[in-house]
Amino acid sequence: MARVILLNKPFNVLSQFTDKGTEGSARETLSSYVKVPGVYPAGRLDRDSEGLLILTDDGKLQARISNPKFKQPKTYLVQVEGSPTEAQLAQLRKGVELKDGMTRPAEARLIPEPELWPRNPPVRFRKSVPDAWIELKITEGRNRQVRRMTAHVGLPCLRLVRWAVGAWTLDGIPPGEWRDI
């Protein structure tokens, strides 16, 4: 039977177990949090993003989760700079043209500030510019896609938390902790 682990990846942690790219680097990896042999991340979550990372020892499941052809929905809670308008949300829902092509349509809605853990280090705010939270659900996973999409519509990303992949969520999992399912 496949092993599946839901990890709440903290901010500033690489989505891999080793950091071979920079010998002697102080960059933190998954090995600081998950001491389980034989499991690997199903997909990526950028170092400056937080939230749900699924680890598994099942290659087929890993492919179903991470390959865009399976259209696995991924839900993000995105703190943006500015006050989103209905027109900006509609652009995200329709899909936006990025340098690597048009994105698939997304589900996008304005949400109240979610009850999340404090980020370390804290998000840097500008007192003169409002911020807001958007829930964004996408079915692909291009490099830095959510950040590029929100920036494209004039809403730079301040904080990005992946809350769910399909039916799996972070509910009840603190940062740096994981749960077998």
From TrEMBL:
<dbReference type="Pfam" id="PF00849">
    <property type="entry name" value="PseudoU_synth_2"/>
</dbReference>
<dbReference type="InterPro" id="IPR018496">
    <property type="entry name" value="PsdUridine_synth_RsuA/RluB_CS"/>
</dbReference>
<dbReference type="InterPro" id="IPR020103">
    <property type="entry name" value="PsdUridine_synth_cat_dom_sf"/>
</dbReference>
<keyword id="KW-0413">Isomerase</keyword>
<dbReference type="InterPro" id="IPR000748">
    <property type="entry name" value="PsdUridine_synth_RsuA/RluB/E/F"/>
</dbReference>
<comment type="similarity">
    <text>Belongs to the pseudouridine synthase RsuA family.</text>
</comment>
<dbReference type="GO" id="GO:0006364">
    <property type="term" value="P:rRNA processing"/>
</dbReference>
<dbReference type="GO" id="GO:0003723">
    <property type="term" value="F:RNA binding"/>
</dbReference>
<protein>
    <recommendedName>
        <fullName>Pseudouridine synthase</fullName>
        <ecNumber>5.4.99.-</ecNumber>
    </recommendedName>
</protein>
<dbReference type="GO" id="GO:0009982">
    <property type="term" value="F:pseudouridine synthase activity"/>
</dbReference>
<dbReference type="GO" id="GO:0140098">
    <property type="term" value="F:catalytic activity, acting on RNA"/>
</dbReference>
<dbReference type="InterPro" id="IPR050343">
    <property type="entry name" value="RsuA_PseudoU_synthase"/>
</dbReference>
<dbReference type="InterPro" id="IPR006145">
    <property type="entry name" value="PsdUridine_synth_RsuA/RluA"/>
</dbReference>
<feature type="domain" description="Pseudouridine synthase RsuA/RluA-like">
    <location>
        <begin position="4"/>
        <end position="152"/>
    </location>
</feature>
<dbReference type="InterPro" id="IPR020094">
    <property type="entry name" value="TruA/RsuA/RluB/E/F_N"/>
</dbReference>
<dbReference type="GO" id="GO:0001522">
    <property type="term" value="P:pseudouridine synthesis"/>
</dbReference>
<dbReference type="InterPro" id="IPR042092">
    <property type="entry name" value="PsdUridine_s_RsuA/RluB/E/F_cat"/>
</dbReference>
